[in-house]
Amino acid sequence: MLFTCDSRSISIVHSSIRSCLADILLSKGYSANKVGKLLKITGAAVSYYKKGQRGAHLKEKIMGNPRYYSMLEEIANMLIEDDGKGYLEPVIEDMICRLCRELRKSDLIKNLD
User: Fold this and answer.
1) Which residue of 9, 20, 59, 75 has the fewest CB atoms within a 10 Å radius of its CB?
2) What pTM was computed for the model?
3) What pLDDT sits at residue 104?
4) ∠ CA(47), CA(92), CA(100), 5° rounding?
5) Does 24 fall in a domain?
6) CA–CA separation, 77 vs 80, rounded Å?
7) 40: Cα within 13 Å, side-chain hemisphere
């Protein structure tokens, strides 16, 4: 899953979002390889997210917030519906960008740059 923006703070947010999405998809019974396909990352990367070796910076804060968790669930459901075909990719990317913007504006994230 590629993103069009780049900075240290955004990279941390994106990694945390991917980690949250991986957890949600794994909890729905998908294998690490299938989750990797849906997120356009490797199964090994999914394993790193699952173990907390990647994306752990903000994961608890994001997953613990009902609004953000709801947005993640919606994104995960769209990923499942799209099944890696790319039809819904622009919509999914827009939803992820919206979530990222909200996270960066929130009090959850400070001094990441």
Assistant:
1) 9
2) 0.86
3) 82
4) 75
5) yes
6) 5
7) 11
